[in-house]
Design goal:
It is a single chain. It contains 4 helices and 6 strands, in the order βαββαβαββα. A hairpin with a 2-residue loop joins strand 5 and strand 6 (about 110-115). About 40% of the residues lie in helices and about 20% in strands. It folds into 2 domains: about 15-65, 2-Layer Sandwich (Alpha-Beta Plaits); about 80-130. Helix 1 packs across helix 3. It has about 130 residues and is of the alpha+beta class. The longest helix is centred in the middle third of the chain and has 14 residues, at about 55-65. It is elongated and about 50 Å long. The protein has a 3-stranded antiparallel sheet, with no helix packed on it. Strands 4-6-5 form a 3-stranded antiparallel sheet, with helices on one face.
Length: about 130
């Protein structure tokens, strides 16, 4: 890793506006950036990365967008879970658990949508989730 500092205006930084991205897409993005050892930071809905990593980040963004076009396991009837009292950090952490378990899902603001076949498993995970 280089000595990039997102708070230093002298550090060459590329910004990506990801306001339209779902929580699931952001979780996957952060995991892929970590795997690629690419430092990053957030300024609201904007992803900040070192300019030296721009081409690698572009490729990762394309990969996440391609993978998220049709959420796995969400064809058919959906079950809704209202998580209005959850913080963004809790939702990100729980989305990572769902990804790890291979449970297809999508977020619409604070509403978690999963396939009805996964609803019982998600209910159990929600009961176990320590927040």
């Amino acid at each position: 890793m280089d000595e990039w500092d997102p708070r230093n205006p002298e550090s060459p930084t590329v910004r990506y506006d990801l306001a339209d991205w779902s929580l699931e897409e952001r979780v996957e993005l952060v995991e892929m950036l970590a795997e690629a050892d690419i430092r990053h930071d957030w300024d609201g809905n904007e992803l900040l990365v070192p300019a030296s990593a721009e081409s690698a980040v572009d490729a990762i963004l394309d990969e996440v967008e391609d993978a998220s076009e049709v959420p796995a396991g969400l064809a058919g009837e959906l079950e809704e879970f209202e998580l209005d009292d959850w913080s963004t950090a809790d939702r990100v952490e729980f989305a990572a658990v769902l990804v790890e378990r291979g449970i297809g899902h999508r977020w619409e603001d604070n509403l978690l949508l999963v396939g009805v076949d996964d609803a019982d498993a998600v209910e159990d995970l929600l009961d176990e989730f320590d927040r």
